[in-house]
């Protein structure tokens, strides 16, 4: 089976590859792509894979945008961090999906269900329906965190957060007050829980709030360098692929 992986987080892509090779010795991984743009170019210029493992969020937008630019003539298994309610859209359209972190057995079962000959491939109308349902089911965002403290709890509103960062595999809320609080959730989980109008995943280590931005500078190779209001010592680099999305996010 020839598989194409669309995933912009390198650690997630590496885990997928490892699981695939461990459970399916005959699998051939054709490529691992990080953006909508590169994925469209690859599909236009290469033989059709047997199946695509497709993350919903890629570095330059939603993977649904691929379907508006090219006919994807093979089965697709979506990989997503969204919960079971957000992926109901895929169920009603007879599409398969896997929730992150990807379970080895679930991935194996999904691949066994793929039949390249009998699969009804996605039409653009199907994608539009899915996207609309997806948006409707993803409108409820986290507004606060309940944080254990001493012998009780404290509530922290998302409006109090300047940015969220990962360090030594631990996630921290950095508040406008200058206080840093460790929480259990990962950045991948929080990216899906927080309102994308207010929060932006700058890179693998940080999520920025819209009010945290101090200054933005052009950097090398098309990247952007961002300094923050509450921590002038921290410099955040936005990749060339994400730079247009970041500027569009701020220009509203």
UniProtKB/TrEMBL annotation:
Limits of the Response regulatory domain: 2-115
Keywords: Phosphoprotein
Keyword set includes Phosphoprotein: yes
Pfam family, one: Response_reg
Residue list for modification 4-aspartylphosphate: 55
All residue ranges annotated as the HTH LytTR-type domain in the record: 145-252
GO function terms (MF aspect): DNA binding; phosphorelay response regulator activity
Keyword Zinc in annotation: no
Name this polypeptide is given: LytTR family transcriptional regulator
